[in-house]
Specification:
With about 400 residues, the protein is an all-alpha fold. The protein has one domain: Growth Hormone, Chain: A. It is about 75% helix and about 0% strand. The two termini are about 20 Å apart.
């Protein structure tokens, strides 16, 4: 395995994914909620759904724009990637300040989601293309960095709330680290062929089932996490819901990272249908626990269920997409996989906002409908994976040429 990327190099080359995930965690789960608690307290859930929906639409547009560029004969160069990273840092800083009035915050939020997703998808596909036979290891590294960012981000932004200088310093330090990591990759981008052919190829039925499974789970996960602060405040009625939500999400992330690392060889070798069924079933436990208005032990149990299920789901689906052997090829499917997550997020926000508008925030029917909807999405994903398996690969064809 002379071409195998050393572990240290793999960690360094994928580390910008941590920075992006760290920023996304704050931008999706903490910063808008804290902003709306003071700027739109009466309609916070509906406004949040609209804001996150707009941001997710911008994110989907960013991935689509990036996929077009990846398909060109000369992919995006390193200097352009650094430019997109700087644009990401500038727009995210506007959210941290935060800018006023609400309209300016909305514009900054949409711009951040767009430029950061252009950067993310192109970097993801480019790193996969230069993984030198280590697609499974690349997928695991990206998944672990994603989980790490989603773990540290919420707690960090809650802890730094109200301390703008410290928050901006953290953004600058992380941005400098990402710039340094990208600079070390000089020569890896811009001169290589496209990550993979087949960007216009039709999806196989098995690929569609994988994307549908991802869509269902991601819709439920994003919807649940996006409403966590409000659910803890208005339904479970815990003290300091912002801190409780940050701790809960971070606890899920720590466990997810551990599960992702320990699952990498199992998922890469021969995943079975059950290996993607049980994570969805475990995720379905979380809204059921929250529905019971648990105390601290119940919240810990919910975090355990979501952390284990989420970690296995994330590393499993990402590895499957990165090692795909059918149409449209791994890089093309990975681009679709990244965008399915955005479309699912948009759907989750739209469903949450629709429930809030129809039933009204804080009512018993609203909470039941919200948590029941998330549980149904997780159960539907489990049923799809069990009844229409998508994990078993057909015999691999010989490599071309």
């Amino acid at each position: 395995m002379a071409d195998r990327v050393p572990t240290r190099a793999l960690v360094l080359r994928t580390s910008p994914m941590f920075v992006l995930s760290f920023f996304w965690a704050g931008a999706q789960h903490i910063l808008p909620q804290l902003y709306l608690l003071t700027h739109a307290p009466e309609d916070k859930a509906a406004v949040l759904a609209a804001l996150l929906g707009l941001g997710t639409a911008c994110a989907a547009l960013g991935v689509a724009l990036s996929r077009r560029r990846v398909a060109r004969p000369v992919p995006l160069g390193l200097s352009s990637l650094l430019g997109w990273l700087l644009a990401t840092l500038i727009t995210f800083s506007a959210l941290v300040l935060p800018v006023e009035p609400l309209a300016a915050f909305v514009v900054a939020y949409g711009a951040f989601r767009l430029v950061s997703n252009v950067l993310y998808n192109h970097l993801d596909c480019a790193l996969l293309a230069t993984a030198r036979g280590g697609a499974a290891r690349h997928a695991t590294a990206v998944a672990v960095w994603q989980i790490a960012g989603q773990t540290v981000g919420p707690a960090a932004f809650v802890a730094l709330a109200g301390h703008q200088a410290a928050t901006l310093l953290a953004v600058v330090v992380l941005g400098a680290g990402a710039l340094a990591a990208l600079s070390r990759l000089r020569g890896a981008f811009g001169a290589s062929p496209p990550p993979a052919p087949g960007h216009d190829a039709s999806l196989s039925s098995r690929a569609r089932r994988l994307l549908a499974y991802t869509f269902l789970l991601q819709t439920g996960v994003v919807g649940l996490l996006g409403n966590m602060i409000f659910l803890l405040k208005d339904w479970v009625r815990v003290d300091a819901p912002e801190q409780a939500a940050g701790a809960l999400i971070s606890g899920m992330g720590v466990l997810s990272a551990v599960v992702a690392v320990r699952s990498r060889r199992v998922m890469a070798s021969q995943p079975s249908p059950w290996s993607v069924v049980w994570p969805a079933l475990l995720l379905a436990v979380t809204p059921a626990i929250l529905l019971a208005r648990p105390g601290v032990p119940g919240l810990v149990l919910a975090a355990l269920a979501a952390g284990i299920g989420g970690g296995r789901y994330l590393v499993g689906t990402r590895q499957l997409a990165s090692m795909w052997t059918e149409a449209p090829g791994p890089a093309a499917l990975l681009g679709r996989y990244n965008n399915v997550a955005n479309v699912a997020s948009l759907t989750g926000y739209a469903l949450s906002g629709g429930v809030a508008l129809i039933l009204g925030e804080g009512h018993l029917a609203y909470v039941y409908a919200l948590l029941g909807m998330f549980g149904a999405l997780f159960l539907a994903a489990a049923a799809l994976a069990g009844l229409r398996p998508f994990t078993a690969d057909p015999p691999s064809a010989p490599a071309p040429g």
